[in-house]
Amino acid sequence: MPDNLRKASTASQQVELAVNRLNSLSTLDCIAAQYIPRLLQSQFQPSTLIDIIESDPALTSRILSLIGAGGLGLPDGRFSLGKALDKLPAHQVRNSILSIGISHTFEQHNASDSNSVSPKKGLFIHSLAVACCAKEIAELATPKMDPELVYCAGLLHDIGKLALDETMPRSFAGILEEAESTGQCSLAIEQQHLGTDHTIIGKHLAQKWQLPNLIVLAIWLHHSRTLTISREMPEARIAAVVQLSDLIARQTGIGRSGSFDMPGRTEPIARELAINDEQLENIRRNLSAVVEQKTKTLGLDMPKAHVKYCNIIQDAAVQFARRDAELSTENRRLQSASSHLDFIKDFLLNINLTITALDLADILAVRWQNFYQTGRICLFLVPPAGSQILEAVIVENLAQSRTITLNIPDEMPVIPKILSNNFTIVNAHDYIDWLFEQIEAGFDEKQTKLLPLLCGTKAIGAIAFELHYPCDTELFEESFRTSASIAGAALGMAISQRREQQFAERFVGLITAPPEPIPPLESVDTPEESDRTTPVEVSMNALAEIAAGAAHELNNPLAVISGRAQLLAQTEKNQEKKQILDQIHENANKASEIIDDLISFAEPPRPRPAETSIAQIIDEAIQLANRKTNIEELNTQIKLADGIENVFVDSAQIVSAIANIISNAIESYCEQPGPIKITADADTTADMVLLSITDSGCGMDTAILQKAIQPFFSARPAGRKRGMGLAYAARLIQLNNGSLNIESEPGTGTTVNIHLPRQ
Fold it and tell me: Which of 62, 165, 125 is closest to 255 using CA atoms?
């Protein structure tokens, strides 16, 4: 191989190696001064930069490279750099643009004077001129071409020259000087000294950066015989447009292309593209104004651009430092929150539906010490009202706990007032010295802290622990607030569950206990009342009193259970636990519905008696029973004795009571509903009306008959209703100064006798 060829080959390899290391082109400091303030906006959107990006070869190539590298592809149909930009996340666009290098310009003259600008700025302006010209030609050419795509091809056609200026600025400057002094095209000088040229270099870069194939062709072929090539390869027409645009830009003297030979003739290419002379002249005449507008957008005519750029970089550095400090603080907070979520997860995994509050307190105390690396711990719960005995959990050595009971001094609050309904952290010995005096464990007076365990806005307990490490007080309080609130909610649920069980057991015991004999009344002043008060009525009054108390006591714990379960379920990620919490919430709501029945039974509205037709009451009760049982027409047989017209009662309450009795009568038939006889007659022993409701259903034995009007009793199997029908009916009749008794035999049927007052 001749020496000149060997040298050319070696030079070509060196250039290729140098250029291949480029990941992007550098932009100019005046352009950076335009886009950096926009990048620093808190709500940055890539679309706000489109006017700058589409006018800068470095930024355009970078964005197209990101699109290609991400495998996103360009939007279908007409090419649009704006739509391509929308495919990229804002943070990726910002980071990518900030990573682009900056070239400094120091000339202080007008950018429109091509002899006063730096080579790189001259290339930028020339590329802008070619891009604007190419877009105009693409809109006029036949057949039509995509103007935006052709514009990008024109803007990027000389990226090979920009790459040479980037990697070997002195050599490239020498090439331009030689081209200018000899009046040649820079392409020839490049081939002579480098063994390659900017079209080959640009092609390789475009392929490496995964730019669109048509743009690669324009970069590669714009100095070739484009007319000949495009006849055989139609897609190369884009190179012909760029070549024609390059010639026009050089003829008008806009920018500095680096080629100093005489521009070739434009007519042959124009004729091939169906562009006439008048259209070419219009393009030449308007090109300068179009390019000038673009240079203003980029700030290419900015005086002392490097000074403004330095000031902007200074401001950006301050802003980045502030954001870095904010991110550092947020990172610390998130790390702390994350660690506390680990504690909460570990704690919740040890909770089940049968665990007692004290056992849960033991688990909490042990894990608190282990997770937060504290010293001794004392966790205590507020005792039931009236109790002076306090239950507490003590943890001294790691994972070793014991349960103790303590005496509460008279008139001493278990929870200090400052903690009773507010989360804060105090020095424990300032408030609960009486507790430490009873504990056989030496808590460090200076290091022991006390914080409440809140369920809602009420403290249900507190935890005292030795804090062995220094920390920021505000960060400390924020760190423990979440853990303590979740623990308080869980403990509150366990306490409420236990109270619910106690009330349920107490209630069942009361209603299932054998009836006590009723002592004779000593008073002789009201014999009528004594005669009219039956054992059933006394039993009903007692049951109502029990139901009222139990209902009110159960309502609050159930509201806490339901609310906390729903709150925990909303934040729980574990599906199994979420399902359990949803079941707790659902069943607590069902229990609340039972409580509503109890309250309706125990505290129904005060009767408003008035004279009402017995026939009207029976008719309305039958209609209501129709709706309750979903039976369109009941088989009822009604017989009213002569002279039976009105009763003195609250008609709405008595209609509801009779409808419940009729519904029970319908359910007594195992298959098809049978007849129900309703009679009304005078009670010969008092000024009352005797209303009898008789069915021929399954009937009841003696044991069932004795419990028939007890709340929640039913002889039906699992899946039955709540068993409140007869109990509620008896309660309403009693409140209206009436009475109810039941006669029944198995297999024969049942008769319910109701006495209602006439006045």
Answer: 125
